[in-house]
Amino acid sequence: MAQHPQTIFHETTLPSPSLLQSRREIFHAVGVKAQLAQLRKTGRYTCFDLKWQPGVYDDLSRWPCPPPVYWDSDVAKWIEGACYLLLDRYDAEVDAAVRAIVDMMRSAQGDDGYLNLYFTVIEPEKRWSNLRDQHELYNAGHLVEAALAHSKYYKNDLLLEPIIRYVKLIRSVFGPEEGRRHGYPGHPETELALLRLHAVTGNQDAYELGRYFIEERGNPTGQHGQHYYDWEAEERGDSPWKRPNSYVHAYDHFYNQSHKPILEQDTVEGHAVRAILWDNMVDRKMYLTGGIGAMLNWEGFGIDYFLPQGTDDGGCYNETCASIGVMMLAERLLHLDLDSRYADVMELCLYNTVMGAMGLDGRSFTYVNQLASSEKDNDRRESWFETSCCPPNLMRLFGSIGGYLWDYGSPAADEVFVNVHLYTTAEVSFETGGGAKVSFAQLSDWPQDGKVSFQIKAPSTLKTTIRLRWPSWSPDYKITPSTAEEFECVGGYIVIPSSYTSKHSEFTVDFDGFAPRQVYPHPYTNQHVVALARGPVVYCVEDTDNPWEKDHFRDTGLARHGEIQERSRSMPMPLGSGDQAEKQCHYIELQAKGWTRKHEKGSDTRGRGRGQKSIRQAYAAEKEADNEEAVTLVFLPYYLRANRGGRGMMRVGLLRE
Length: 657
Ligand SMILES: [Zn+2]
Known about the structure:
- The chain is an alpha+beta fold and 657 residues long.
- 33% of the residues lie in helices and 18% in strands.
- Among the domains are: 207 residues, no CATH class; 109 residues, Maltose phosphorylase, domain 3; 140 residues, no CATH class.
- The strands form 3 sheets. It has a 6-stranded antiparallel sheet with strand order 1-4-5-6-11-8, with no helix packed on it.
- The site of zinc ion has 6 residues, from helix 13 and helix 15.
């Protein structure tokens, strides 16, 4: 079993400076404490004392999910992220807060091992009564992940021990055995946490439960001949017509992927299904920015190619957590099938939707990541959300980001390999099976520049193979020192064989593809728009740089031809006092020729009203040059949007000639 990023991230260090390192620095300087303050302010942290919180618990009317139902997971994700950051750098305040919340969690646990806030304080009689909607098992999964991170940093089982007791209790309730419930988490997550718990501790309950949840999911006749969620709804006495907003029809379980057994799909189609699901998602349901989920209603996928840019166009959701999930899935798939298409998407998500979800102040976030603003949904950030899964999820991702950069190992005593998925400035150190120490470093200014230098430090007797992802947007590359032999490219990875690395412990690869390029959505999206990208970074326009804009760039086009100019710019990172106050975020601004479309306000009916032009006249008039005004457009990376005030107007895809 290949190691998980959460287990091995600390073997990689990120010496400054790099964009990834600067993001983790924001969490160290501000993010981890700002999120703690929000958890305290909103009652999430304090509620583990199991006391009724007036003002916090007063309105629990939201059905089927009053917000406190998933508070455990917000706190658990914060603990997980905090422990990753502590491993990188000690902070007394964060350490004290982790210790205190762990003590509270230990006291909050029931004698039988049960550990869930909502069903202990608010509705104790409703335990296990609504797995479909109420996040009980989902919370347990995040507690498991928090406990693993905690035991890794603190090297004790103060959190792991109660969580293992909780897992034992859950195993006694759920499973294939007669008399146990044949249910599974409404929100999948617990499964991977349990399997990770098993991988780290060998815990058998965790393995059996994780496997059972996966195998049982979507069984149409699992509980007394019924789908489990239909059975439990009947047990609750719910009307068959009462359904959550996220369900399009009653009994329609696609929202939580339990409409069909997962394993049935896998065994019928084998490897192909995995590829098909991935390709379907990436080729037909993913935005240019790596965002997924066009539909607000169920925070999820629409039909193929339904990818409107914003609310005005028909909707765009793109939750931050969804793109973090894509990164996690891509990282897992790379272990099974080393193919650059997974790593390309992992990088696309990282440098666009995921990185853009936190402001440079470390205290402001986006939950929804639209590609265009509107009057209804301005492009702005919030300090917290009622459902606040995204901020602590970002923290645990950036806390463990070292684990996503590469895959490495020692398949035989005299062999080592490193497969590099993401480029930055970083160094990994590990030991071979024979105990030899190996370190491998990369140095680059990615994603601003495509030049990456590598250095291998390993005993000369070792055969070292390096595989470098060749991004799909890069037309060519050059490796120095050069060699007479051609490098092989397998699955989108350039193979640097041991015959080369034995002669050159230092080498450089220079990827082309950092000239700005125009990118278009698939023609089936019916969007006649164009966007700019440079390397893995997608760009957008904002009113801050284009102050003439009045209507969210709905009438703005990008010239097909014409030079695109690059300018080195920087933006302050307002991290508060001390030396952090001076930090700047460097980026490359693009300037290009564009135009704005003029049309008479109120003429939207195009000739249907009295005295209006006929449709033909209106279109003809629109084509005339004097209906367009030339402008110079200023673009900035999408990940830097909404950091400088302004009027909240932004767009990625502009009209195309
Ligand atoms: Zn989220």
